[in-house]
Design goal:
- By secondary structure, this protein is mainly alpha-helical.
- 77% of the residues lie in helices and 0% in strands.
- It has six helices and no strands.
- Helix 2 runs antiparallel to helix 3, helix 2 packs parallel to helix 6 and helix 3 runs antiparallel to helix 6.
Length: 243
Amino acid sequence: MSLWEYANPKKFMQVSARVLPVVIGLAAVSLCVGLIWGFFLTPDDFRQGSTVKIIFIHVPTAMMAINAWVMMLVASLIWLVRRHHVSALAARAAAPVGLTFTAIALVTGALWGQPMWGTWWAWDPRLTAFLILALFYLGYIALWQAVDDPDTAADLTAVLCMVGSVFAVLSRYAVKFWNQGLHQDSTILKVGEADPIAPAYYVPLVVCIVGFVLLFVALVLLRTRTEIRARRLSALLARERLA
């Protein structure tokens, strides 16, 4: 069995119909457990107080904002190379989800940063790259809407996706590229190193990350199925007009 069989719209609809309820259920359980654990069963930080608990939303959404763009890039490259319509539709479906995660990450970052840094916003390298990534999300969605021919729109948005990937990388590694800035480096992977994240926060944070990953997968599957149905409906209406 070839992996490319799942690029067939009929096959994708059949498989996703079986997988989707499982993913939704796992996402709901993970998010409920992670958020309840994180917000109600973890102690306040000795410096940041209860504001540190924004980490359980801010970090997972920021991670998914970047990873959503990476997923769109992979799907766009598959479209350019293999011309599988499901991959182009999946990339289109992921964009509003990624933009939503980006907006949540920016808002929660501002809420967290104001009491810690004394400002709602700073032109920090990571924050600036993240804001530009949000603008690329908006541009990507707008370009899909602006071009009538779906194949041409898929080609143009794939190119835009490749360009925007630069800022996806910068928003992840800006702290490593530039030492200046207020935003700290990632501490999730620093267990066992100096200044790691406290164990009391680490486990529920990982559960939240898993929950947001599953939520992203569920939303993309739902939206991709909707995009496929919309494409079929457009084709049927076009046939009726020609008949």
